C-alpha cells in the first residue's frame, strides 16, 4: 500500500483532463469495446426440415459458430428424407484472418494506450523535456491510426461475408432434401449479429480517435517550433555579398557622385584668418571677433 500511495502522490493525473491524456483514456476504453465485442462473439441459427415421411423429419437443426469464424469447420447433420439417413454438411468460408487481425489491433491499442497513460501521469516532465519520446509517440500513433483503418475495413468486409454465409435461407439450399418439393424446409431462428455490427462501429470510432490524437501528440514533438524558426518569407531574403569588392568597403560612396549629392568645394575661399575672424568667398564678409570686441 505504501508503494501504491507513493506512486499516486508522484503522479500528475491532471494530464487526464488535457486533450493529450483525455483522448488516450478514450482510446483505451474503445479499444476494449472493439476487441471484446468481436472476440467474445458466438452465434447460432436454427432450421427445420419436414419430410414427406414425418418420422424422418428434423424440426430443430441448430448450427453454432463463433470467433474466429472459420465457417468451413462448422458442420451440421440434416435428414435426407430417404430411408432415415442423414448427411453432414459444412458452412462455407474462412474469415479468421480479418477477425483475428481486428482483435489483435484492438489488444495492442489497449496495451499501448495504457502504457502511454502511465508515461503521461508519472513521467510527463521527462516526456516534454526530451522530444524524442514525443516523436516516437507520434510515429506509433500514426501507425495505429493506419492499422485501425485497414483492420476496420477488412473486418467490415469479413462480417458482411459471415452474415451472408450464415443466413439460414442460403444454408437451406445446401440440403439435398430441400430440393424436392414434397419436403418442406424453413428457417426457425436467425443469428443475432448486432454485437458484431457494434464491433465494426467501435473500430471506426477508434480510427477517428487515433487520427485526432495525432495533432495533440505532434504539438509535443517540437517539430512545429523547428518549422516556425527556420521559415523566412521570400520578400525578406537578402543576398549576401560575395566579397568586399561587391557591396563592401570597395564600393563607391553614393554621395560622392555628380548627381543628387552634396559636393563640398574645398577650393573655395574661406576659413579662419590670423586675427581670429572667419572669412568666406562672398562679397559681404562677416564681422570678425575683434571688431565685435
From TrEMBL:
Compositional bias ranges of the Low complexity kind: 275-285
Membrane topology: Multi-pass membrane protein
Cleavable signal peptide: none
Keywords, ordered alphabetically: Glycoprotein, Membrane, Transmembrane, Transmembrane helix
Superkingdom of origin organism: Eukaryota
MARVEL domain segment(s): 15-222
GO cellular component: presynaptic active zone; synaptic vesicle membrane
UniProt-annotated stretches for the region Disordered: 238-293
UniProt cross-references to PROSITE patterns, sorted A to Z: MARVEL
Localization terms from the record: Membrane
Transmembrane intervals: 25-44, 101-124, 136-157, 200-218
Assigned protein family: Belongs to the synaptophysin/synaptobrevin family.
Protein name as it appears in the record: Synaptophysin b
